[in-house]
Amino acid sequence: METNNDGGEAKYIGVRHRTWSKFVAEIRDTNRHGARVWLGTYNMAEEAAKAYNMVAYKMRAYVSKDGRYVIELKYL
Predict the structure, then answer these.
(1) In what residue span(s) does the AP2/ERF domain sit (predicted)?
(2) Distance separating alpha carbons of residues 69 and 71, to the nearest angstrom
(3) Could you tell me which of 17, 31, 41, 60 has the fewest CB atoms within 10 Å of its CB?
(4) Residue 43 included in any domain
(5) Domain of residue 55, CATH code
(6) For residues 9 and 18, what is the distance between their CA atoms, to the nearest angstrom?
(7) What is 40-76 written as a DSSP string?
(8) How many independent structural domains does the chain possess?
(9) What Rg do the C-alpha atoms of the chain give, in angstroms?
(10) Would you say residue 26 has pLDDT above 80?
(11) % of the chain residues with pLDDT over 70
(12) Which tens digits make up the pLDDT trace of 55-70?
């Protein structure tokens, strides 16, 4: 989690704050030439960050031969 230098709210990767006190989550899909994928609108930044993390994990992970999820670091 990062904070703004001006003392503003905390920001998360893939989360934007709307002017009407809502948070939106988006992720870039590298398989579609960096197109934005809309993940939804949320009341809290933490909810939007969780949605981003779930989708990012599914997009960038694969199952190895022994059944574990492995994340390819080249996408992070």
Answers:
(1) 11-74
(2) 7
(3) 31
(4) yes
(5) 3.30.730.10
(6) 12
(7) EEESSHHHHHHHHHHHHHHHHEEE-TTS-EEE-GGG-
(8) 1
(9) 14
(10) yes
(11) 71
(12) 888 887 766 777 776 6
